[in-house]
Every structure is written in C-alpha cells, then in structure tokens.
C-alpha cells in the first residue's frame, strides 16, 4: 500500500516536471501573452538563513513544485464556487508536490556508552501531493486543501539528504535508522484570509486555517503585513492570485511581507509518529501543543516572473527542543 501511494505521488511530480520542460523548450514561451497558469519552484533549507553557523536540525530541508491555473468563469467549478462565495473574482487550482526531511539536533540528543538512545526530535521523511482550490474576492481569500502523502523511509528523504551531503562534501547524518516508520497520511485543511488594515503601501492581513488528518491536526491564526508596492488580494503574488485570461500582465509588485502565526497542535505525525500502529525506535519528550512561526519575506514580481526569499524563526516544537531557523528561496514563472 505504501509503495502504491509513493508511486502515485512520484508520477504526479514527473508529469509536472515534463510539462515544465516542454514549456521552457518551447521557442514561443517568451513571446506568449498568456498569464493564466504558472509553475513555482521552491527550496527550503537552514543553509538559507542569516546565521553564520548552521546545522541540520528539526526542519532540515524541503523541495517543492507547484502548478497553478485560473479557472474559466463558465466552468462547473467556478459556477459551484460562486454559489457559496459572494463577489467571487477568481477560482485558482493549485497542484503541489513536495518532499521534506526532519532531523534531530545531535548536540542535544541523549547518549549512553556512545550510542544515541533518545532524540529531541524524531527523524522523519514526508513525501506528498496536494490539491488546493482558492476562491478570491476583493475582500477575502478562501481555500480548501487536500493532502495525500507517505511518511517514513518510503518518502526517500534520507536518500535525498545523503546524496546532497555527498555533493557538498558534508558527512551523512547517522541516525536515520531511527526515523518514523512508513505510514500513508491524508489531510484536509481550510483557510480564510482578509485585510484588516488597508493603506496604499501598507496593509495587515488576518490569516486563519484549520487542518484535520493523520499527518497534521492544528489551528493556526496569524497576522501578516505588506510594505511596498503591491496589488489587491485578488490579484497578488502574496496569495498567488495574480493569474488572468487577459492578454495584459498583472501590475508589477515589490514588497516586504512580515508577521507571525500562532499554531495550536492536536497531532503532528513527523514528531509523534504514525497515528495507527506501533512506533518503534522513538523516544522523545513530547510535542509542544503551541508554537509560533515568525517570518519575513522579500517579493519581486514582474510580468511572467516572480522571485522571493522568506526567512522563518520557529519556536520549540518539543519539550527538549529549541527554536530554529530556515530560509525559502523560490521562483515563479507563468506559461
């Protein structure tokens, strides 16, 4: 069963990569005046931080690929959504594939006779595919997200990190043998975002979301601000809503975003292990039920291309853990 879902996710990722390759080798790519679909590539890593000394710990790395498309107004999905959301401007569908790796902080792990016996955070791999449907109006953004993935060795996170460490001539981490066991996980998430303060070059947004599933169950509430030149929420890279069927591109944007989210956890499989079945080789001191994600990002978007860099500070996830940092670097291009 695990290999079936792993192959399903990998096949979707391969299809997205093929579409991306065909788009880039098309000679007419640069001349096309279409702005109705886009790809996004993003890399998360603690190397991408402002700290002089970094180490693989906690959220160690993530590689993400997205494909988005705006839905035509005559489509059944748009008409269905319009019945449930007033003043609907756009419906956007996003397909996402990603792989993430989580490791402990070896300087804080417990050892007996030179052998690690307890970790401040379990090792975990997470390979997944997501579908998000976003409904945008001039007043608010609503979305529903469905996630299917596999935890454990079947995710391939250990091999990906090992190969990357060989490439950069870094030693491999030794404790992946203690990672969370294989488990298929399914999640459903809902979210709503809206501006509570709006000025011409500065605004603040309320962002709320709730997730229920076997990979992560949580409630998240945050405040995020934008400072600079930006578009309305139904046409901005901030919410990935700057897609259109018109032959003119969205207005350029360049802004700083900043804020924080308070997260209340009900369940987190990458720390607590699989929900069903035994969890062997795990010895942690418990999940923190509340933690905070503080982030800041620089965004620049012009015509078909967007680049962004985001920096995160996450407070401790476990009772033995501590806060950590990671950065995200990404590019978006319309096809």
Describe the structure.
By secondary structure, the protein is mainly beta. The chain has one domain: Lipocalin. It is 14% helix and 49% strand. The protein has helices at 2-25, 76-84, 157-167, 269-272, and strands at 37-45, 58-70, 88-103, 110-112, 115-118, 124-137, 140-151, 183-198, 202-213, 216-229, 253-268, 290-302, 305-314, 324-334. The strands form two sheets. A twelve-stranded antiparallel barrel has the order 1-2-3-6-7-8-9-10-11-12-13-14. Strand 6 and strand 7 form a beta hairpin. The chain is globular, with a radius of gyration of 21 Å. The mean pLDDT is 86.
Describe the sheet with the most strands: 12 strands, antiparallel, barrel
Shape category: globular
Number of strands: 14
What is the fold-level CATH name, i.e. the topology? Lipocalin
CA gyration radius, whole angstroms: 21 Å
Average pLDDT confidence is 86
**Briefly, what CATH class?**
Mainly Beta
Series of H and E elements: HEEHEEEEEHEEEEHEEE
**Helix run count:** 4
What is the percent of helical residues? 10-25%
Measured distance between first and last alpha carbons: 36 Å
Q: What portion of the residues fall into strands of 2 or more residues?
A: over 45%
Total domain count: 1
């Amino acid at each position: 069963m695990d290999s079936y879902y792993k192959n399903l996710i990998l096949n979707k990722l391969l299809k997205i990569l093929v579409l991306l390759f065909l788009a880039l080798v098309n000679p007419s790519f640069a001349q096309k005046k279409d702005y109705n679909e886009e790809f996004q590539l993003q890399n998360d890593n603690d190397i991408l931080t402002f700290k002089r000394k970094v180490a693989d710990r906690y959220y160690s790395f993530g590689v993400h690929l997205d494909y988005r498309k705006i839905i035509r107004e005559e489509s059944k999905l748009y008409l269905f959504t319009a019945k449930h959301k007033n003043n609907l401007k756009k419906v956007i569908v996003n397909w996402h594939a990603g792989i993430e790796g989580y490791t402990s902080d070896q300087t804080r792990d417990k050892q007996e006779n030179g052998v690690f016996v307890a970790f401040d955070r379990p090792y975990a791999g997470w390979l997944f595919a997501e579908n998000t449907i976003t409904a945008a109006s001039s007043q608010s953004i609503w979305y529903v997200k469905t996630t299917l993935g596999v935890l454990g060795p079947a995710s391939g996170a250990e091999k990906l990190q090992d190969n990357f460490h060989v490439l950069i001539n870094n030693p491999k981490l030794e404790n992946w043998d203690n990672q969370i066991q294989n488990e298929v996980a399914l999640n459903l998430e809902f979210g709503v975002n809206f501006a509570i303060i709006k000025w011409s070059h500065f605004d603040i947004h309320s962002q709320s979301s709730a997730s229920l599933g076997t990979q992560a169950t949580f409630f998240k509430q945050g405040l995020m601000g934008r400072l600079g030149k930006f578009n309305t929420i139904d046409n901005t890279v901030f919410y990935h809503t700057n897609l259109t069927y018109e032959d003119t591109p969205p207005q350029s944007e360049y802004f700083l975003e900043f804020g924080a989210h308070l997260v209340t956890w009900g369940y987190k499989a990458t720390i607590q292990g699989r929900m069903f079945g035994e969890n062997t080789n795990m010895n942690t001191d418990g999940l923190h039920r509340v933690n905070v994600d503080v982030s800041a990002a620089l965004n620049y978007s012009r015509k078909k291309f967007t680049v962004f860099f985001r920096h995160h500070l996450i407070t401790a996830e476990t009772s033995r853990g501590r806060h950590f940092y990671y950065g995200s670097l990404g590019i978006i291009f319309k096809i």
